[in-house]
Amino acid sequence: MRLLRSRKFWLILLVSLGLAWRLGRYFLNFPIWGDEAAVGLNILDRSYLGLLRPLNYVVACPVGFLSISKWMMARPYNDCTWPPTGQHQATRRAPDAEATW
Length: 101
Fold this sequence. Notes:
Blueprint lengths: L1 H4 L1 H21 L6 H12 L17 H12 L14 H12 L1
C-alpha cells in the first residue's frame, strides 16, 4: 500500500510505460505520417547548409536533429548495423527513438 503512494514508483512506472510505447511503435514499423514525411523530404532534398534555412512543407525541426538524421541517411545501407543506415524507414525514425532515452 505504501508503494502505491510513492512518487518514485509512479514516476518509474510512467517513464517505463512511455518508453515501452515509443519503442513498440518503432519496432512495429508503423507507416510514416505527413509531418515525418515532410521532414524526411527536407533531409533528402537539402545539403547540410540547406538545413539551416526555413524548411519546406510548413514544418519546423531542431537543426541538430536534422543534421543527425541527414548524417544517418547519407551513410550506405547496411542491414547489420545499429542505428540503421541508408534511406530506410527505420533510419528516419532512429534519431526519434534514441532521443527518447
